[in-house]
Amino acid sequence: MEKRLNVYTEGQPALKTLFGIHAYLKNSPLEKPLLELVYTRVSQINGCAYCLDMHTKDARHGGETEQRLYGLDAWKDSPFYNDKERAALGWAEAVTYAQVSDIQYREALAQLSEAELIDLTLAVTTINTWNRINIAFAFPAGSYVVGQFG
User: Check: CATH 1.10.760.10 for 31-137?
Assistant: First the structure.
Protein backbone atom coordinates (compact mmCIF):
# COMPACT_ATOMS: atom_id res chain seq x y z
CA MET A 1 0.00 0.00 0.00
CA GLU A 2 1.18 3.48 -0.81
CA LYS A 3 2.43 5.50 2.15
CA ARG A 4 -0.09 8.14 3.22
CA LEU A 5 0.19 11.22 5.35
CA ASN A 6 0.37 10.78 9.10
CA VAL A 7 -2.93 12.22 10.25
CA TYR A 8 -1.75 12.20 13.87
CA THR A 9 1.08 14.64 13.16
CA GLU A 10 -0.50 16.62 10.31
CA GLY A 11 -4.07 16.69 11.60
CA GLN A 12 -3.77 17.74 15.24
CA PRO A 13 -6.10 20.76 14.91
CA ALA A 14 -8.80 18.57 13.35
CA LEU A 15 -8.32 15.69 15.79
CA LYS A 16 -8.40 17.89 18.89
CA THR A 17 -12.20 17.64 19.04
CA LEU A 18 -12.11 13.83 18.90
CA PHE A 19 -9.53 13.72 21.70
CA GLY A 20 -11.89 15.95 23.70
CA ILE A 21 -14.74 13.48 23.24
CA HIS A 22 -12.41 10.69 24.41
CA ALA A 23 -11.61 12.72 27.55
CA TYR A 24 -15.33 13.23 28.20
CA LEU A 25 -16.08 9.52 27.81
CA LYS A 26 -13.36 8.58 30.29
CA ASN A 27 -15.56 10.24 32.94
CA SER A 28 -18.80 8.76 31.62
CA PRO A 29 -21.01 6.57 33.83
CA LEU A 30 -20.25 3.77 31.34
CA GLU A 31 -17.69 1.34 32.65
CA LYS A 32 -14.34 1.33 30.84
CA PRO A 33 -14.47 -2.46 30.22
CA LEU A 34 -17.85 -2.04 28.52
CA LEU A 35 -16.52 0.79 26.36
CA GLU A 36 -13.54 -1.33 25.33
CA LEU A 37 -15.84 -4.18 24.27
CA VAL A 38 -17.91 -1.75 22.21
CA TYR A 39 -14.83 -0.12 20.66
CA THR A 40 -13.47 -3.53 19.76
CA ARG A 41 -16.74 -4.80 18.28
CA VAL A 42 -17.29 -1.71 16.14
CA SER A 43 -13.68 -1.89 14.96
CA GLN A 44 -14.26 -5.54 13.98
CA ILE A 45 -17.29 -4.53 11.93
CA ASN A 46 -15.36 -1.75 10.20
CA GLY A 47 -12.15 -3.75 9.75
CA CYS A 48 -9.88 -1.21 11.43
CA ALA A 49 -6.66 -3.04 12.26
CA TYR A 50 -5.14 -0.14 14.19
CA CYS A 51 -8.20 0.28 16.44
CA LEU A 52 -8.45 -3.47 16.99
CA ASP A 53 -4.82 -3.53 18.11
CA MET A 54 -5.41 -0.56 20.42
CA HIS A 55 -8.66 -1.62 22.03
CA THR A 56 -7.80 -5.27 22.54
CA LYS A 57 -4.56 -4.19 24.23
CA ASP A 58 -6.45 -1.69 26.41
CA ALA A 59 -9.13 -4.28 27.21
CA ARG A 60 -6.54 -6.88 28.25
CA HIS A 61 -4.75 -4.28 30.35
CA GLY A 62 -8.08 -3.57 32.07
CA GLY A 63 -8.56 -7.24 32.93
CA GLU A 64 -10.61 -8.44 29.97
CA THR A 65 -10.25 -12.14 29.21
CA GLU A 66 -8.98 -13.65 25.98
CA GLN A 67 -12.10 -15.81 25.77
CA ARG A 68 -14.43 -12.80 25.76
CA LEU A 69 -12.29 -10.94 23.23
CA TYR A 70 -12.11 -13.96 20.91
CA GLY A 71 -15.85 -14.55 21.23
CA LEU A 72 -16.84 -10.96 20.62
CA ASP A 73 -17.60 -11.43 16.93
CA ALA A 74 -20.19 -14.05 17.97
CA TRP A 75 -21.46 -12.31 21.12
CA LYS A 76 -25.11 -13.09 20.32
CA ASP A 77 -24.40 -16.81 20.54
CA SER A 78 -21.82 -16.73 23.35
CA PRO A 79 -22.61 -17.10 27.05
CA PHE A 80 -19.73 -14.81 28.06
CA TYR A 81 -21.59 -11.45 28.15
CA ASN A 82 -24.12 -10.10 30.63
CA ASP A 83 -27.42 -8.42 29.76
CA LYS A 84 -26.01 -4.90 29.90
CA GLU A 85 -23.09 -5.83 27.65
CA ARG A 86 -25.47 -7.53 25.21
CA ALA A 87 -27.69 -4.46 25.09
CA ALA A 88 -24.66 -2.21 24.53
CA LEU A 89 -23.22 -4.44 21.81
CA GLY A 90 -26.59 -4.65 20.06
CA TRP A 91 -26.94 -0.88 20.23
CA ALA A 92 -23.38 -0.41 18.95
CA GLU A 93 -24.03 -2.63 15.95
CA ALA A 94 -27.34 -0.95 15.16
CA VAL A 95 -25.84 2.55 15.35
CA THR A 96 -22.82 1.49 13.29
CA TYR A 97 -25.08 0.13 10.56
CA ALA A 98 -27.43 3.15 10.98
CA GLN A 99 -30.39 0.79 11.42
CA VAL A 100 -31.78 1.29 14.91
CA SER A 101 -35.17 -0.31 15.46
CA ASP A 102 -37.67 0.48 18.20
CA ILE A 103 -36.99 -2.98 19.65
CA GLN A 104 -33.26 -2.28 19.91
CA TYR A 105 -33.98 1.09 21.48
CA ARG A 106 -36.24 -0.50 24.12
CA GLU A 107 -33.72 -3.28 24.81
CA ALA A 108 -30.94 -0.74 25.28
CA LEU A 109 -33.03 1.44 27.62
CA ALA A 110 -33.96 -1.63 29.65
CA GLN A 111 -30.28 -2.10 30.56
CA LEU A 112 -28.83 1.41 30.33
CA SER A 113 -29.83 4.70 31.87
CA GLU A 114 -30.71 7.56 29.54
CA ALA A 115 -27.34 9.20 30.28
CA GLU A 116 -25.53 5.92 29.57
CA LEU A 117 -27.39 5.47 26.30
CA ILE A 118 -26.49 8.97 25.17
CA ASP A 119 -22.83 8.43 26.10
CA LEU A 120 -22.81 5.00 24.47
CA THR A 121 -24.15 6.51 21.26
CA LEU A 122 -21.43 9.17 21.39
CA ALA A 123 -18.82 6.45 21.96
CA VAL A 124 -20.10 4.40 19.01
CA THR A 125 -20.18 7.33 16.62
CA THR A 126 -16.72 8.41 17.76
CA ILE A 127 -15.09 4.99 17.29
CA ASN A 128 -16.73 4.81 13.86
CA THR A 129 -15.04 8.14 13.06
CA TRP A 130 -11.66 6.92 14.34
CA ASN A 131 -12.02 3.70 12.34
CA ARG A 132 -12.66 5.64 9.17
CA ILE A 133 -9.77 8.03 9.77
CA ASN A 134 -7.33 5.20 10.47
CA ILE A 135 -8.52 3.22 7.44
CA ALA A 136 -8.46 6.25 5.12
CA PHE A 137 -4.90 7.17 6.08
CA ALA A 138 -3.74 3.52 6.38
CA PHE A 139 -2.43 4.02 9.89
CA PRO A 140 -0.44 0.84 10.64
CA ALA A 141 -1.43 -1.57 13.39
CA GLY A 142 0.98 -2.95 15.95
CA SER A 143 2.64 0.15 17.33
CA TYR A 144 0.07 1.14 19.95
CA VAL A 145 1.23 1.13 23.57
CA VAL A 146 -1.38 0.89 26.35
CA GLY A 147 -2.21 4.36 27.67
CA GLN A 148 -0.54 6.10 24.73
CA PHE A 149 -3.45 8.50 24.26
CA GLY A 150 -4.24 9.07 27.91
Answer: no
